[in-house]
Task: structure prediction
Amino acid sequence: MFELFKRVKTVVSSELHALIDKAEDPIHMIDQYMRDMNKEIVEAEKATAKIMGEEKLLGRKVDDTKKLIETRQTQAVEALKSNREDLAKRALEDKNNLTKELQQLEDLHTNALQQVVELKEKLKVMKNEFREMELKRNSLKARAEAARVKTSINRSLSNSNTASAKKGFERMEEKVLREEAEAETSEDLQIMNKSLDQELKELAGKSEVDLELERLKEQLQEEEKKSS
Result:
């Protein structure tokens, strides 16, 4: 009954750590082993309950047989008192048969009790081992998940696409910097152009004033000549 459980426990105890390095999905395999172990525990519980039921039934039969033996003894005495020797003899014969049957029932009951004790002890051990394996399963599942994440990250870092994306990013960054530089240069040129225009306008403005000034001078000179 417990052979499969022993085999499963052996695999879980000695080979479960190696599953991480194999091609199988370790988490899937661990869960399958735990399901197998749990199935064995359920079957063991059913077998134990069945033997316990038989033990109780045998116990009742032992008690009933003992009472019936006492009854036959009493009936044999009463038959003799009533001068029914033949009936007393039949009661004693049945008593003897019941005594032999009682011996067999007691042997069966004793054997059943031993089986119940053994099954309960094995069931206790199985459940303890299952809890131990369950803790190992949780630990190994966490390790397996961590290993997968680490592998995924390492693959991403070593992937050529990632390197290409990085180069593309750097290229776009350089392009943005170039565009910013061009914008700054354009702005500087615009400021320079504005300054030139302003200077030219100022120069043109100064020329008009000079011309006006010359005209005023000439006008004054003419007025002086007339007055003289």
The longest helix spans residues 85-158. The helical segments are 3-15, 26-81, 85-158, 160-227. The chain has a mean pLDDT of 79. Residues 128 and 134 are 10 Å apart (CA to CA).
